[in-house]
Amino acid sequence: MYAIIDIESTGGNPKKDRISEIAVFIHNGKRVIEQYCTLINPETYISPFIVALTGISNEMVAEAPKWAEVAAKIDEITKGRVFVAHNVRFDYSFVSNEFKRMGLRYQRKQLDTVRLSRTILPGLTSYSLGRLCQQVGIPIEHRHRAFGDGAATAELFNVLLQNDHRKFIIESLKDEITQSIMPPNLRREFLDDLPEETGVYYFKDERGKNLYIGKSTNIRNRIISHFSGDMNHEKYFGLKPKIFSVDYVVTGSELVALLLESHEIKRWMPPFNAAQRRKKYRYGIYQEPDEYGYINFKVSLLKQEGEPLLAVGGRRSAEAILTGLADKYNLCLKKCGLEDTSDACLNFYEGKCRGACKNAEPVEEYNLKVLQAIGSYKYRKPDFAIVGEGRSPNERSVVYVEDGKYLGYGYFDESEETGYTFEQLKDNIKLLPDHPDLHGIIRSYVLKNRKGQVVVYK
Q1: DSSP E strands: which ranges in 28-95?
Q2: Residues 225 and 259 in one domain
Q3: Vertex 17, ends 414 and 196: CA angle to 5°?
């Protein structure tokens, strides 16, 4: 049985925007046998742009039921049924987030008619709902309304069923968790309730000791992928029979998940996380001017005084970083401490070094490139906070850096804040130990400027 669903919303962000209309068509694999449609009071303002797109105005929804009033009905008619939609991630995210606002988990198997159409009806010029239906002869009445688009999707689903000669739909719905891939000492019930959300997960042995810690934007899918294939890799050899339970922490934010994963691995030292278990850094990359004024890099043991540009575990790691900087910024290998010769460096002969090794490149020009290279490992400002997604639609996460040091992360209810100031955000964090690994994660996130992320500077 299938629940073919279409929603209209106040915007495109399922964590901030709300559902304004929903239509559900119950399909038994041959035809639609039940349907349900209602406007919903989104309890928020509908912008003129959305009104023009959907035709749903603030006046139309003023007397409509709120989500809490229809949630039980939606849960009942979709329970045990496959959630089908055109671009299913969009509709499913909105529905699951509406339940999450109520403190409830909504989890269903999903089918995407976009993906199905590309496989079952290949070669069409477009797979948007309007153009696709036009190409296969399905009329759509009341475009961009839940009932009209939902009814068209139901008709499209009929076409897909009739043309699915390779049984692709049935294959897509096969249980992704078979007994053959399950760890022998793990009960299936542990996996059934895993969330499809961002967070950190833990594989534990019979005594509850952590064997492996990981992070994912979809905890359930990632764990299943471990069991179905990843554990055949040699680095996981022997892990599967030792797993007796699975635990997890939902973080909402991928950045928080990355930071928590790194912290937890160093805290618990799981035997199957060897690559990330380093707690201490022994070497540092330092900068110092030579007798001609050129800024040189030097790798040495961490000093009691003086901050290194970067702390690293070993000399090889430092040399690999410096080699990358030399290639990217056309630096001299000798002045990066990577060559010791009376001749010009290899980069000079390859056209990368402009002659600093022969004191031929102007000092100011060379040092400017060095400062650019150093800047790639420095924050724009030493005091900032990164505000991102939280664990629920009205919650936000915050990662806090002060004086260039990571202090920790936390959460706050966005509805209680009128804005973000650096000082206010500090009150929401849980203090955690700093570590050089964490700054690589944070720098990467700041540079990528992730959607929904706000960086607040002091």
Answers
A1: 32-39, 82-85
A2: yes
A3: 85
Question: What would you report as the CA-atom Rg of the chain, rounded to the nearest whole angstrom?
Answer: 28
Q: What would the two tokens of residue 89 be? A: 């991630």
- Same domain, residue pair 295 and 398: no
Total of domains in the chain? 4
* H or E element in which residue 226 lies: helix 219-228
* DSSP tag of 66: B
If you write DSSP's letter for every residue of 392-406 in order, what string do you get? STTEEEEEEEETTEE
Half-sphere exposure of 417 (CA within 13 A, CB side): 19
Pairing of strands 19-27, 210-216: unpaired
Residue 41, pLDDT above cutoff 60: yes
Strands 245-250 and 199-204: antiparallel
User: Are both 28 and 167 inside the same structural domain?
Assistant: yes
**C-alpha 329 chain-centroid distance:** 30
Angle between helices 254-268 and 436-448 (to 10 degrees): 170
Burial classification of residue 280, based on how many CB atoms lie within 10 Å of its CB (0-12 exposed, 13-18 middle, 19 or more buried): exposed
SS (H, E, C) 275-307: HHCCCCCCEEEEEEECCCCCEEEEEEECCCCCC
Q: How far apart are CA 277 and CA 273, in angstroms?
A: 6
Q: How far is CA 224 from CA 30, 97, 113, 212, 400, in A?
A: 31, 23, 23, 14, 33
Confidence of residue 422 (pLDDT cuts 50, 70, 90): confident
Q: Buried (b) or exposed (e) across 28-50, using 16+ Cβ within 10 A?
A: eeeebeebbbbbbbbeeebeeeb
Residue 152 reports pLDDT greater than 60: yes
Note whether 398 and 436 are same-domain residues.
Answer: yes
Question: Which of the two residues, 427 and 446, has the higher pLDDT score?
Answer: 427
State the helix-helix crossing angle for 67-78 and 88-101, rounded to 10 degrees: 120
Q: CA-CA distance, 399 to 386, in Å (whole number)?
A: 5
Domain end, chosen from 172, 201, 236, is at: 172
Residue 261 lies in a domain: yes
Which residue, chain included where needed, has tokens 């959630």?
83
Task: Supply the mean pLDDT for the chain.
Answer: 91
CA distance 43 to 61: 9
CA dihedral 74, 76, 79, 80 (to 10 degrees): -140
Does residue 418 carry a pLDDT above 60? no
358 and 400 in a single domain? The answer is no
Provide the angle, in degrees to the nearest 10, between the axes of the packed helices 129-136 and 146-163. Answer: 50
State the Cα–Cα distance between residues 4 and 369, nearest whole angstrom. Answer: 58
**Dihedral angle, C-alpha 95, 101, 103, 108, nearest 10 °:** 10
Domain residues for the domain of 26 are 2-172
Q: Which of 147, 172, 197 is the last residue of a domain?
A: 172
